[in-house]
């Protein structure tokens, strides 16, 4: 399993680098002028996906739920970081922070699209130094997530002992040579009684609040954007403009559904099933693969839904095939 997981994560990071670098090239060279500063946000999102996948191959995480716990585990067995547990924990926590940054970046894209559709001059809020402010929001969201994990979800002896037999049986990991970020909802006090850990519950609720802010932003601006597009179509907007707006909207919706499938829903179950006593330990391996695969597939909607990028990509492929056909003949 360890070899299979590493091979899968290595392929994912290579594919993520290739597809995101290709998309950055197409954004810079083939974007319609009407896209304006939206190009910068798209490039930023691609760079973030590259960072996400690169950090994933460094950590090579095991995402798991066991009993009353959930966690992201980093095996330090063959790592030089075994002598630097604080650094290893920070890197692991940073990978979980990428989860938060992803959602905030998507939310900002939805805000921009709605302002562009409104045509009331609000895109000025995305120009100059103000654009830097928007770009910093996902980073800030990730920092808050990491800080929460640092304060409330850092390794403690009780949880290490709780996970010891499970990580050894499932992944052949020595609990003394690992780091993790996660929580154990239900613990045992000195009298042998089971109690709900307030620290772990508060940590999970904090993460829920951090996630709900961009989630509701996406729902709100996504709904208003769709209605605005329908208005533009009914008002006889020229074919090119309404086609481009619809392409961008579809790409953004698809780019939201992908993390919903690969991140939000699986991780949401991972968060709360242990709290209410539902055993979903069978899903741990699947969620581990999903988390690693996400950065590789995330840029595909922009590549496939936006005509200028799709046509440029496939035309290059066609010319390449035709060249080899002539050479073979």
Automatic annotation (TrEMBL):
<feature type="transmembrane region" description="Helical">
    <location>
        <begin position="84"/>
        <end position="111"/>
    </location>
</feature>
<dbReference type="GO" id="GO:0042048">
    <property type="term" value="P:olfactory behavior"/>
</dbReference>
<keyword id="KW-1133">Transmembrane helix</keyword>
<keyword id="KW-0675">Receptor</keyword>
<keyword id="KW-0145">Chemotaxis</keyword>
<keyword id="KW-0716">Sensory transduction</keyword>
<dbReference type="Pfam" id="PF10326">
    <property type="entry name" value="7TM_GPCR_Str"/>
</dbReference>
<keyword id="KW-0969">Cilium</keyword>
<keyword id="KW-0812">Transmembrane</keyword>
<dbReference type="GO" id="GO:0006935">
    <property type="term" value="P:chemotaxis"/>
</dbReference>
<dbReference type="GO" id="GO:0060170">
    <property type="term" value="C:ciliary membrane"/>
</dbReference>
<dbReference type="GO" id="GO:0005886">
    <property type="term" value="C:plasma membrane"/>
</dbReference>
<keyword id="KW-0325">Glycoprotein</keyword>
<feature type="transmembrane region" description="Helical">
    <location>
        <begin position="248"/>
        <end position="269"/>
    </location>
</feature>
<keyword id="KW-1003">Cell membrane</keyword>
<feature type="transmembrane region" description="Helical">
    <location>
        <begin position="6"/>
        <end position="29"/>
    </location>
</feature>
<comment type="subunit">
    <text>Interacts with odr-4.</text>
</comment>
<keyword id="KW-0966">Cell projection</keyword>
<dbReference type="InterPro" id="IPR019428">
    <property type="entry name" value="7TM_GPCR_serpentine_rcpt_Str"/>
</dbReference>
<protein>
    <recommendedName>
        <fullName>Serpentine receptor class r-10</fullName>
    </recommendedName>
</protein>
<feature type="transmembrane region" description="Helical">
    <location>
        <begin position="41"/>
        <end position="64"/>
    </location>
</feature>
<keyword id="KW-0472">Membrane</keyword>
<dbReference type="GO" id="GO:0038022">
    <property type="term" value="F:G protein-coupled olfactory receptor activity"/>
</dbReference>
<comment type="similarity">
    <text>Belongs to the nematode receptor-like protein str family.</text>
</comment>
<feature type="transmembrane region" description="Helical">
    <location>
        <begin position="131"/>
        <end position="153"/>
    </location>
</feature>
<keyword id="KW-0552">Olfaction</keyword>
<comment type="function">
    <text>An odorant receptor which affects chemotaxis to the volatile odorant diacetyl. Specifies AWA neuronal cell fate via the odr-7 pathway.</text>
</comment>
<dbReference type="GO" id="GO:0007186">
    <property type="term" value="P:G protein-coupled receptor signaling pathway"/>
</dbReference>
<feature type="transmembrane region" description="Helical">
    <location>
        <begin position="201"/>
        <end position="221"/>
    </location>
</feature>
């Amino acid at each position: 399993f360890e070899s299979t997981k590493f091979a899968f994560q290595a392929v994912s990071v290579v594919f993520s680098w290739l597809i995101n670098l290709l998309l950055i090239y197409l954004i810079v060279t083939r974007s319609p002028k009407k896209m304006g500063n939206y190009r910068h946000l798209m490039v930023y999102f691609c760079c973030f996906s590259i960072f996400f996948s690169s950090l994933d191959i460094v950590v090579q995480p095991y995402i798991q739920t066991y009993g009353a716990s959930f966690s992201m585990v980093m095996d330090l067995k063959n790592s030089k970081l075994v002598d630097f547990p604080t650094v290893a924990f920070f890197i692991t926590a940073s990978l979980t922070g990428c989860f938060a940054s992803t959602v905030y970046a998507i939310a900002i894209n939805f805000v921009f699209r709605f302002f562009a559709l409104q045509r009331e001059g609000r895109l000025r809020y995305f120009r100059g130094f103000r654009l830097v402010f928007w770009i910093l929001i996902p980073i800030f969201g990730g920092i808050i997530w990491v800080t929460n994990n640092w304060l409330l979800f850092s390794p403690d002896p009780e949880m290490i002992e709780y996970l010891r037999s499970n990580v050894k049986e499932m992944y052949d990991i020595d609990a003394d040579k690992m780091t993790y970020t996660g929580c154990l909802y239900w613990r045992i006090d000195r009298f042998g009684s089971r109690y709900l850990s307030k620290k772990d519950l508060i940590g999970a609720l904090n993460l829920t609040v951090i996630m709900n802010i961009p989630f509701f932003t996406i729902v709100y601006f996504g709904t208003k954007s769709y209605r605005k597009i329908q208005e533009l179509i009914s008002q006889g907007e020229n074919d090119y403009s309404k086609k481009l707006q619809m392409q961008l909207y579809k790409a953004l919706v698809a780019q939201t559904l992908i993390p919903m499938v690969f991140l939000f829903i699986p991780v949401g179950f991972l968060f709360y099933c242990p709290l209410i006593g539902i055993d979903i330990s069978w899903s741990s391996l699947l969620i581990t693969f999903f988390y690693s695969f996400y950065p590789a597939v995330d840029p595909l909607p922009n590549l496939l839904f936006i005509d200028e990028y799709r046509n440029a990509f496939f035309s290059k492929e066609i010319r390449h095939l035709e060249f080899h056909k002539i050479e073979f003949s």
